[in-house]
Amino acid sequence: MGIVLSAFTIGLILAALTMGMLISFRMLRFTDITVDGSLTLGASVAAITIINGWSPWLATLVAVFSGAFAGMLTGLLYTRFNIQMILSGILMMTALYSVNLRVMGRSNIPLLDTKTVTGTTETIITGVTGGLSQINIMGWPVSVSDFSVFVTALVICIITALLLKYFLLTHLGTALRATGSNPQMVRAQGINHKSMTVLGLSLSNGLVALSGALLAQYQGFADVQMGIGMMVWGLASIIIGEALVGTRSIGVTITGAILGTIFFRLLIAIALRWGLNPNDLKLVTALFVFIALVAPIWVKSLRKTIWGGLKNA
Amino acid sequence: MLNVNNLYKTFAPGTVNEVKALIDVSLHIEEGCFTAVIGTNGSGKSTLLNAIAGSFKPDHGRINLFEHNITNWPEYKRASLIGRVFQNPFAGTAAGMTISENIALAMRRGKRRPLTAAITSRIRDEIAERVKTLKMGLEDRLDNPIGTLSGGQRQALTLLMASWLRPQLLLLDEHTAALDPKTAAKVSEITKEIITREKLTAMMVTHSMQQAVDLSDRIIMMHRGRIVEDLRDEMKARVRISDLMQTFERVQKLDLFDQSVAEILEQQFV
Ligand SMILES: Nc1ncnc2c1ncn2[C@@H]1O[C@H](COP(=O)(O)OP(=O)(O)OP(=O)(O)O)[C@@H](O)[C@H]1O
Ligand SMILES: [Mg+2]
């Protein structure tokens, strides 16, 4: 149960990252590698502020803004200075590596015995259970502190998802969604597609930084390497989510992103349990995304070959 | 109303691919006038419309729309005054979004886009009501992705979107060219209806002489980046398709003549 609960918790925490990438990758059609840097940025900003005695909620909020700022810069590199999409992200990601080291003052910060956003939930749950340190969930003993983390992640994830859904259905959100789909049409409707791109990347990286801030608090440290490969993880989660529930509406797509992330974390947990070497994890993830990207094309051409063969016969 | 002064545009200047797409084009269009723009392929019709809409900056020249000098306005800013329908039926709408979402975007063309719900039941009713006037049965499919519609249906919707908020100027670039004859006729009819009802000022590029003669108040013919013929008022009223064909041929013969003269001169003197 412990392993499942922790997979769920990490999944819920990283769901913010996936939701953020939904904006950049799916809606703006912007392959944004800034993610690898802004996740760490969120973690390091939260970590340094928390060990300096800030409230963990305020720390998390500041982390979100720092990520949004990074995303805005990527957007400006792309729109104002006409730097290629991928390169804008790479520049930002590279710059953020040094920024993160500067923010933390070293390559990692442990967050032991510090307050985290889980504190409030834990107090409430301990109050309800009357001070027990373990509770029963479907017959499994679970420590109150683990359960509190899970509940906190769940609440934050749901609130984020609802806000995102609301935003994407507003006039502004609709304009943002159209920008990636048809920039020519967007301009013809009087929308500045460049501002939309900057706005979208800000929001996206703000959500990514939220993930980073929560992840640092969950795992008890921030590390300058923790963002590496996160973009591909997010991609994998998006793809799994779309396979699970489709993209019929905004609500469904967002739900898919969350479920996809959790599912992906469960897969990883299981694979590691079965003896997958943790060092191979990123290779396996990259292979998975590769297959998910090309499989639909293969299936299509295969189908064509078969049908073509039948017709010719 | 619309004033285009000495407009020049050269694509890929100084290369082997250099094209002088607009050469000293000047044009004045009065309010409420429906102008048809005809001409051979590559004569610069789309380039003229794109220049007015702001898809690129002209090399030289000035464009005024009402009291505004819009020459340096970016495309999205001009959209507050200009409605557009493109030649490509897929260019005017966002495929993955629903019909109502696409229209909701057009309902705020050139206006602020607030953080309130784009589709409310009131807005939906309004959309359904106006979509019904197209008589295509699309009012029952408002929540379908617009990408699932045919080119003709999408073009009719784009036209509706371009004119949802009354534009000061409506630009139509061969907007029926990619459609089958029946659908083209239908969209053409809707065009006429909207323009007459709203008393719109419009420019329409077309290859159909019939369309030009039937729909417009004024006909402009372009050739090789220049306006070579301008038929208005009584001239336009009297003009027939055969006259236009003749003018076409005359212009093209003149071209051939120019070319052969050039060749002869070249042979003799170079
Ligand atoms: N973006 C561009 N880059 C380079 N050349 C261009 C560009 N746009 C147009 N041209 C060239 O400018 C000339 C005028 O093109 P334009 O599209 O205005 O013609 P048109 O009159 O609309 O023709 P058609 O009837 O085929 O649509 C053509 O020779 C075309 O090749
Ligand atoms: Mg054209």
Could you explain the architecture of this structure?
- The complex is a heterodimer of chains A (313) and B (270).
- Chain A has 313 residues and is mostly helical.
- Chain A is 77% helix and 4% strand.
- Chain A contains 12 helices and 4 strands.
- Chain A has a two-stranded antiparallel ribbon with strand order 1-4.
- In chain A, α1 packs across α11 (250-273) and α2 crosses α9.
- Chain A is globular and about 65 Å long.
- The mean pLDDT of chain A is 92.
- Chain B is α/β, with parallel strands linked by helices and 270 residues long.
- Chain B has a domain at 2-93 and 167-239: 3-Layer(aba) Sandwich (Rossmann fold), CATH 3.40.50.300.
- Chain B has 9 helices and 10 strands.
- Chain B has a 6-stranded mixed beta sheet, with helices on both faces.
- The complex binds adenosine-5'-triphosphate and magnesium ion.
- Adenosine-5'-triphosphate binds next to β2 and α1 of chain B.
CATH superfamily of the domain at 2-93 and 167-239 in chain B: P-loop containing nucleotide triphosphate hydrolases
Could you give the order of strands across the largest sheet of chain B?
Answer: 6-7-8-3-9-10
Helix share of residues of chain A?
over 70%
Question: Order of strands in the sheet with the most strands of chain A?
Answer: 1-4
- Total of DSSP H or I helical runs spanning 4+ residues of chain A: 12
Derived from helix and strand composition plus strand pairing, the structural class of chain B reads alpha/beta
User: What is the overall shape of chain A?
Assistant: globular
Structural class of chain A: mainly alpha
CATH class value of the domain at 2-93 and 167-239 in chain B: Alpha Beta
How many structural domains in the coordinates of chain A? Answer: 1
Q: Any low-confidence stretches of chain A, pLDDT <50, length ≥5?
A: none
Helix content class of chain B: 25-40%
Protein chains sharing the most extensive interface: A-B, 23 and 35 residues
Largest sheet of chain B: 6 strands, mixed
The CATH topology of the domain at 2-93 and 167-239 in chain B turns out to be: Rossmann fold
* Span between termini of chain B: 49 Å
C-alpha geometry of chain B: globular
